[in-house]
Amino acid sequence: MMRLPSFRLLSPRSMDDVTVALADDPASTRLVAGGTDLLPNMKRRHQSAKTLVSLRRVEALRGIQGDGSSEVRIGAGTTLAEICRSDVVKSAYPGLHEAVSSIASPLLRNMGTLGGNLCLDTRCSYYNQTEEWREAIGYCMKECGDVCWVAPGSSRCWATSSTDAAPLLVALGARVKLDSVRGSRVIPLEDLYADDGIAYLTKERDEILTEVLLPSSDKTKTTYLKLRRRGSIDFPVLGVGVALVQDDAGGVEDVSILLGAVRSQPTRAKAAEDRLRGGALDDDAIAEAAQLARKPAAPLENTDFLARWRGAMVEKFVARALTSLRGR
Amino acid sequence: MSDYSLEGQSPGGRRQDLKLIGKAYRRVDGPAKVTGQTVFADDYTAPRMVFMKLKRSHLPHARIVGIDVEKALAMSGVVGVLTGRDMPDTFGILPVSQDEHALCPDVVRFVGDPVVAVAALTEDEAEEAMRAIVVDYEPLPTIGSVQEALNTPEPRLHEYGDEGNVHKRITMEFGDVEAALKDADLILEDDFFYEGNTHLPMEQHATVAVPEPDGKVTLYSSTQTPHYLHKALTKVLGLKASHIRVIAAPNGGGFGGKSDPFNHEICAAKMALKLGRPVKITLTREEVFYCHRGRHPVQMHMKTGFTKDGRLVAQHLQTALDGGAYGSYGVASTYYTGALQTVTYKLPKYRFDSIRCFTNKPPCGPKRGHGTPQPRFGWEVQLDKAAHALGLDPAQLRLKNLVEPGEVTANWLKVGSIGLRKCIEAVVEGSGWNERYGKLPFGRGLGLACSSYLTGAGLPIYWNHMPHSGAQLKLDRSGGVALFCGETEIGQGSDTVIAACVAEVLGIGLDDIRLCVADTDLTPVDLGSYSSRVTIMAGNASIQAAERAKELIAEAVAQRLDVPKGRLVFADHRVFDAGDPETGMSWQEAVQCAESLHGTLGTTGSYTPPRSPGRYRGAGVGPSPAYSYSACVVEVEVDPDTGLMRVEHVWMAHDVGQCINAASVMGQIEGSIYMGLAEAVMEESAFKRLPKNRSAALVHKIPSMLDYKSPTFLDMPKMSSYVIEDPDPNGPFGAKEVGQGPLLPMPPAVANAVFDAVGVRVDQVPIHPHMILDALAAKAKGRPPRFGPGAFPAFDFGTPLKVPTPDEGGDGKATNPEEAGIRKDQGTMPETSNTGGPRR
Ligand SMILES: Cc1cc2nc3c(=O)[nH]c(=O)nc-3n(C[C@H](O)[C@H](O)[C@H](O)COP(=O)(O)OP(=O)(O)OC[C@H]3O[C@@H](n4cnc5c(N)ncnc54)[C@H](O)[C@@H]3O)c2cc1C
Ligand code: SF4
Predict the structure, then answer these.
(1) Min Cα–Cα distance to chain A from B700, Å
(2) Cα B343 to middle of ligand 2, angstroms
(3) Domain hosting residue A218, numbered range
(4) ipTM > 0.90?
(5) Which of A41, A133, A237 to mutate to test the interface with B (most CBs of B within 10 A)?
(6) Which fold has domain B467-607?
(7) Any idea what DSSP says for residue B512?
(8) Mean pLDDT score of chain B, rounded to an integer?
(9) Which segments in chain B show pLDDT lower than 70?
(10) Which of A87, A117, A91 is nearest to A102 (CA)?
(11) Does residue A207 lie in a domain region?
(12) What DSSP state is assigned to residue B91?
């Protein structure tokens, strides 16, 4: 059997205890929420920690507040299953419901949390492997090596952002609250991410993500399309999250199109948004926007499926997402 | 999700005389399995047990320069290590491929080849110690494919084999194929590729070895072949066979992946003897991918001639197998990529050439269908192409060419019953084929394919005259019956099969039978759960033992009741006079009568397959007491915009001869659909190299269950199963196999359905969406509407072994063994068959 390395486990109940524990030795301490990402990674020994701080007993991190007519707040420790069951999410943010219910499998959603999903380590088929396998390739830059095996000429890591919730939440304009012993701050979720497979989060190591704040859903239509091999379990090889506000005539008042799993961060298809904003949402506009959306995607050979095919699918999926929202 | 129908094809419909056989009933191992009480190998534990880990090579090919275990030995909890020096003798499943060491003594041949075994008080300590072992290597050049193996005759991976890195070369011809092809109206030549894949059993291999005070050792292991493991242990440990006991725990799935003796099993036994303590090892999922023995990647070139009206003229098939680093069953696999090409459709002339090459990858071996799904894929796709070219219906084309019952094929295989016509008719009707094929909207399609499979290999793996399967019954005054049989339950339901055979003969219930199975000390030898042999061989052996017990009891009861023996009926837990059912006694009283008359009661039964007519070198692979048949229709939905495909519905008919347990038959059909679908659309054992200027790595791409894609429930189509019962004279109650056959037609049926849906051919599996898109793009540009492999590797097969066919008046022997370079000492499979006939 694959074994976990040994570590110290802290299980505080209060937020203060969490931030203090994190501040003590941020470099070798990690938060564990559902553990569905961290623990497999620790078994394979590409993530490690002397101390784990469990968030399971911190009640303040759980729950969904608000009804969508004004801001909705989701605690970072809320499980994905709870979010799937939430009527508020279903009715006010159907795209978020689609995204979250496509994550992993029912059992994993019972354990996995929204905070863990947003902070999910980036993935790569040269990295999400056992210690023995990585030794066989001589490791890569994301760990202790000096080369990126996917793009050997590159000076950076291209591991893919694989969270299903983030693209849709960024499209929605969600913000996140970060707490530490040094205080607390709220930033747009989009700013939490950096396009770097190693330093993919901009937050400090002693900061904890405590809540996700969703703007009122008034007029905003959302959808999420996910591409993966199988009907369940699989991480996305492409995610398309769209938030759309239409004027009374059906024209595009505002639109956000975010691509998941094609770079190291959720990626905004800005040229596509610009093409649509202020115009009609007709077939031509959708086709042109979809074509423009392909540009910022940089799929590489480090997930399931051929990269060139995944790239071609960006256009198809963006077009499908926009077309489906137009009809809603 | 699925529906099911049973159809008897024997003259009088389904057999009415059987009480249990043929019905659907609960498996004898069912309650324990569903309540979590089955004791699998990893569940065994023993006082003072220690845990073992294997240090495996991280290089694909290298010479071992030094091994440093000092640091590991000094670590807390560590109790011992073993290296290759401790077990110098080689082993391997086939006598002709004894090329494995329990631990590599000097060369490692793939990433995952084991070098050191270490044991410690806890699994954690063993793992840490394993990581602390340092092995120094001198890297050697690596081979990643058949083509590379042909380009790189030196250095050789092994010192044996036909030449360079070609492990096995075969060429044989039955009738003059080229001459026959001159008369063909249509000749199709195609290149196909079938990617390798693995068994993916839920249970990871596990072994517990327990030393005994008198120097003996007992092994509990998840193995499909306790008898062959016993032989390998005897060889490597250097103990008397009678001092080693192997007990096969119920396997949590095998599919062929637990049919070889494995390094970890031998190391556990050696370590237990060395330490005088029980030793456990349970592999990680990654290690299971390295044990492998899965489907060989096979490239194929198939040239077939047809007449205008769709009759087969002749075929020349060439196959090239990527064997991985060791022999395993590979020589047999190589023969199997050609042997069964003749048992479905009448192929008057046939030539078969094949090579198997060594590569620096985990060894390939037998997976469900062993060597035959690959040529079956090419064959059934090519038939679809022929039907199209000739303007014939694919189902009609097949019906025209069916082998006749009792026929001897061009390559000298004797077929028994064949219910394929009924199978085809069932799926044609069920799927609405005649109304819908070729007429569905663009993007939707139907595909048809058939297949045939062995019901047990006609020859054992090592040459001997002993039975392939034995059973022993012990009966006493309690009325209980103990059934001893070497057969191994791997989830396929074989425990239930042998119990049902005995219960049927004796007229008692399954719950009256105590099973003792798969224990080399206590049970008569059975060769193992492979080649779909258990129902026919252990079933027939059990029936023979039961018939003999029945005879003993009948004799005693006849005396006591003063009724002629021949009039006694055994049914409903009673033995009674057929003429006057009131005159009789309970089963228990009947056994007591017999025990009083004969003394202690015990009987045996055994089974050896009949002799096959082939007498040429290579004729040992392919013969079987009976062949099963399947036909299937698949309906797919293909999105021409993305290439994404979904299999919507599968209609599968299977000629099983006679159901032993109808519920298990259905389970095997559905399980085969699942596995065949997986191979058609996603599963692949892919390997990757890194940029050559920076690294010599050659690794399994995805040795994990998340990333090695196998379908989930949500990916399963609706299934309609049809059971056709065309009893075979050699089968127990007429039964034939069902464990492997229904997998075979799935991949070609899917490929044929894609063609019906969008008009392009994908000549390889698994079929990925980009392949469909690429083929569509090719079509749009006016190029051949196909995605598939390039040309077959250039290789000189030399002069084929020529064997005249039965139609040509042959006698089953080759006419030119010297010319074809067959030497007495070079053989791989025994040239002549055994003495045959059931043994008394
Ligand atoms: C088989 C399998 C399939 C999966 N499929 C998908 C999928 O399809 N889509 C998908 O998006 N994910 C998938 N996942 C990943 C994972 O299950 C989910 O992303 C889940 O939401 C992670 O949440 P968690 O609470 O379990 O995270 P954990 O494993 O507990 O934590 C993940 C990371 O986030 C950090 N973290 C956790 N909470 C916080 C916080 N509040 N503040 C700051 N940092 C925090 C942890 O330190 C850790 O680095 C899959 C996982 C598996 C094992
Ligand atoms: S993208 Fe490159 S550096 Fe990053 S994990 Fe993959 S191989 Fe390593």
Answers:
(1) 9
(2) 50
(3) 62-119+160-326
(4) yes
(5) A133
(6) Aldehyde Oxidoreductase; domain 4 (3.30.365)
(7) G
(8) 95
(9) 1-2, 7-14, 823-840
(10) A117
(11) yes
(12) B
